[in-house]
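Task 17 of the worksheet. Students: predict the tertiary structure of the chain below and write it out as structure tokens. Keep your answer in the requested format; marks are given for formatting as well as content.
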Amino acid sequence: MAPLQRAAQLTGIPAMENSTHIKTAIECVVDFPDDQLEEDREIVRPGGMGVATAIAELLRQTGATVTEPCLDFEHGWEFVAERYGRRFWVLVTDLEKTKLIQTQDVSSLLKRLFSGRQAYTDFLKLLHRVLAGDARFKSAEWVA
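Model answer:
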């Protein structure tokens, strides 16, 4: 995976430049303690809560309104961030060696139809910038 660009060097999301397809997920190598909980060899709480909480806080620091991460036991930790007049769903999934951060514009259909995708691409650039500015996010690759 390519190293994340530092925030000062960031000009846009590399995976989105010169493309009509928007990549909406990031696979990251992170430097966070393993927070998965197990009892009797069974997972009782999947990992990724610390990463989701950190991302939520980083987005809050930019002025976004963000819900607290909650557990979707099948998939990971999810929250909703409101920014640019839109709502964006974020899901952090623990893949053992990496974390998968998926996003989706969950704004109303009318907002998505009539205001285009600029707010979503701005949100993805913001997400990239906050991750690039935090040393705990070591490397990332935009996927999907």
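Marker's comment: Confidence is low (pLDDT under 50) at residues 5-12. The two ends are 15 Å apart (CA to CA).
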